[in-house]
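for the record, two folds in this file. i put them one after another cuz i was lazy. first one right below, seq on top, C-alpha cells after. the second one comes after a little note so u can tell where it starts
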Amino acid sequence: MSWSRSIVLKIAVALTGGCSVFLHAQGYKIETFKAPIQERNSTYARGINDHGDVVGNYAFNQGAANYNRGFERLADGTFVYPITDPGDLAGCATFATGVNGSGEIVGWFSPDSHATVHGFTLIGGVYTTVDETSDGWTEILGVNNGGGYWGNLDPPASSGRVSSALRARLHR
C-alpha cells in the first residue's frame, strides 16, 4: 500500500503546551514527532510523499517575536531544517507545504509579516520564488510527481479582483 493512498495526517495538541504531529496509515504504526529545536515549539505537518518524507513548519517565539520555519523530515526520521526562503529576510515566515517523489519541496514565505506572500520551489538546494501575480499573494500548497504545483492567489483588495485558485502548472 503506498503512502499517498493510505496516509492520514493529523495534528495532536498538548505535550508541554505545543503541538506534535502524528502519522497514521492503515497497517503502519502511529508515530509522533516534533521539530528538534531548543525553543519550545509547535510542529505542523503539511505534506507527505510516497517515500514517507514529511514537510511542514514549526512555530516558536523568541521574546516578543513569533517565527515559522519550514522543515523536512525524511522517512528515516532525519530532520532537514530550517527551510527558510532567502527572500524571507526576517526569517520569520516560511511554510513548507508539499513534497513530491523527487524531493522537490514547495511552499510559501512572507518577507513582511504577511502583507505579501510569495510561493517557492526548492529543488536540489536551489530556491526559486514563484509569483503568479505581480502585486498580490501566491501561496503554493502542493506539488505532484510531474512537478505541477497548485495553491491560492489573492490579489490586493485595492485591485478590485477576487481571489482564485492557482491552476496546476508545470514549471520544468
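(here's the note) second protein begins now
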Amino acid sequence: MGQSWLTWVLFNAYVLLMLALDLGVFHRKTHSVSIREALIWSTVWILQSMVFNVGIWHFLGSEKALQFLTGYVIEKSLSVDNLFVFLLVFSYFNVKPHIQHKVLFWGVLGALIMRATLIALGATLIARFHWVMYIFGGFLVLTGVRMLFEKEPEIEPEKNPIVRIVRKLFPMTPNYHGDAFLVRVDGKRLATPLVVVVAVVEVTDLVFAVDSIPAIFSITTDAFIVYTSNVFAIMGLRSLYFALAGVIDMFRFLNVGLALVLSFVGVKMLIVEWYKIPTWAALSAVGLMLSLAVVFSLLFPEGKGEADEGDEANGGDEANGGDEANGGDEANGGDEANGGGEASEGEEQGDKA
C-alpha cells in the first residue's frame, strides 16, 4: 500500500533540512574531514536510520520495518564499492582533502534525484509488468557472477565521455580556484575542474544504482521503503568515505561478498513465484556473507606471506618491467597519475585559447 503524498513531502523536507544543515551550518567552512569527525557523522546517520526504522515499525508494522532494514543494509554495503571509485577519482583529478566533502555533497544531492527517478520508473514497471522482476533478477545474477570471476576494470576518468562533454559545454579554467565551481575571469564566467569531478561522481553513482536499486526491489516493491532505505544509505556515504578512506584496501574480499549478495538477491527474485524467501532470512544471509567477507579480509590480508612472495616470484619482470612498461604512463603521463587537474591543463588551456 502506497503512502500518502503528505508522508512523501514530510520525508523529503526532512532530507532537505538535513542537507542544508550539513552544508550551511556544520560544514560551512571548507576543511579536511578528520576520521573522528567522519565516525561521529557516520554514527549520526546510522542512528537516524534506526530511529526512522522504529517509526516504520510503529506506524507500518514489523514486516515493513524488516524490509527497510534489509534494504538499508544491502544498499549500504553495495555503496561501499563507490568509495573505491571516489578514491581513484579524487587522486586522478588531484582534489585536495579539504574540498572533497563539498564535491561529495553535490554528488550525493544529484544521486538522490537520479535514484528517486530510477525507483519511480522501476516501481511503475514492476506494477504494470510483473515479468520485469525476472529481468532484474537475471541481471543481478549476471552482475554478481561477473564481479566474482572477472577482473575489475581500471577506472580511466580521462576516457569517460562525460568528461569530454562537460569540457566542451563549459569554458573551463586550467586550475582549481579553491572550492569554487564557477569563477569570473576577465569578465567571463568560467567553470573550474571541480565541475568535471562532480560530473564523474554523478555518473559513477548512476552506474552503481543500476545494480543496487533492483537489489532492493528483490526485498520489497513498496516504493516508499525502497526510496527511504536508499536515501538513508546514500546520505551517510560521505562520512563513510572519510572514515574508511585510509583503510578500505584492507577489505580485499569485500567484492566477493558483494558479488554473492547480488547473486543471492537475484536468485530470490527469480524464484519468487515458487518460493518466497522470508525477509528475515534474506537479511540474515546478506549479513552473513558480508561478515565473512570482512573476517576473511582481516584474517588473510593482502601483501603478506605467500601473497607477497607470489607477486614477487611471478612479477619479477612485471614488478620491474611493469615500471618500465608503464613507464610511458608514469614518465609521459606522470601528471595524469598524480592528478587529472594537472594532466588536463594542456587540454583546458587549449580549449580556453
